Amino acid sequence: MNIRELLPSFLRRADPDETLQKQAGNGRGHRRPSDDEMLLMELRNLEFRFGRIDKSKLSSDVKKKLNDLFQRAPTWDDAYEIESQIAMLLTGDWLHQEITARLREALERKAPDADALQSEYDAFLKSEKKEPTVADEVLRSLLLQVLENINWQKKLKHLARKIRLTATRRTLCFVVWALLLVLWPYFVWAPAFIWVHFGLYTALTFGLLGALFSRLINLQSSNLKLEELHNAQGPGYIALRACIGVCGAVIVYFFLQSELVQSVLFPVFKKLGEDVKSVGDGNLFQISNLARLIIWSFIAGFSELLVPSILSTTEGQLGVAVSARPATPGS
């Protein structure tokens, strides 16, 4: 049995619908259809590339290894092993073409050692021009390293996607609770002490919401490392970042209330009681001061730089005020 006879049977077992049905019947239907479709495309590409190889170059060891792969359900690791077998069968110009194509792919994927492997291949080409030698084994070794880098990058990307989805789902659960806290006094009955301290309650809840919204945006960044994503999926880590946002909102709340800096952008706390009364009466269209407090509280929770900047500026102003204080008599 040759590879072209073996591979189609492998592809039939890789049919996405059939695979999903089998997994669902076994209670393991967790693989996404898109993953199966991409795997099927990869396997079909391998079938085409296998068809270009001379059958006489296939040894019994290769056939046995492929048979072992075909006996189990196809995975990305199986596709990588088949691709490695292709690399071991290539010679001459085909080998150079494959290395060039795979190095290009590794560079596009930003694989860990792509630049170093490209430099190594360039150095080999220069030495080959000076002293031509038969070095297919060396090139195959280089190709296997490139394939390993690409496969590792694919695994990291797949793992990062799964962790990112978990972190996003857990953060969204926190966001739902934060929204309930925010909207509770507006649409549901609230005890009297909430209305007495409604300004502080607003700062706390919208600071919480801003911090969680910041986490959701941050999770969509492609610059996060795997370790950072792993930390981001922990409920304790999410709660910690939310608490930091709440603390920032409280600091901004008291900073604005102190009136150390005055601006039309800041809420007037003397008129905040009127806005709170309007909210209690169900009138949400005349709460400009409360709306400003909401915006600043949300920004304080969202931005990790706002509160340190405020504290640094206040520290500088305090230092100037102390230095400018007139000396007391007799000092």
Summarize the model shown.
This protein has 331 residues and is mainly α. It folds into 2 domains: 3-159, no CATH class; 161-323, no CATH class.
Low-confidence stretches: 1-6, 8-33
Radius of gyration using CA atoms only: 32 Å
Series of H and E elements? HHHHHHHHHHHHHHH
First CA to last CA: what distance?
103 Å
Oligomer: single chain
The geometry reads as elongated
Helical content band: over 70%
Largest sheet: none
| Average residue-wise pLDDT | 77
What class do helices, strands and sheet pairing give?
mainly alpha
How many independent structural domains? 2
Number of helices: 15
In total, how many beta strands?
Answer: 0
Q: Hey, roughly how much beta strand do the residues contain? A: under 5%
Structural description of this entry:
The structure is a single chain. It is elongated and about 90 Å long. By secondary structure, it is an all-alpha fold. The longest helix is centred in the middle third of the chain and has 52 residues, at 136-187. It has 15 helices and no strands. Helix 10 (198-219) crosses helix 14. It starts with a helix and ends in a 7-residue tail after the last helix. It has helices spanning 3-13, 16-25, 33-51, 60-70, 76-89, 92-109, 114-130, 136-187, 192-196, 198-219, 226-232, 235-258, 272-280, 288-302, 306-324. Helix content is 76%, strand content 0%. The chain folds into 2 domains: 3-159, no CATH class; 161-323, no CATH class. 22% of the residues are buried.
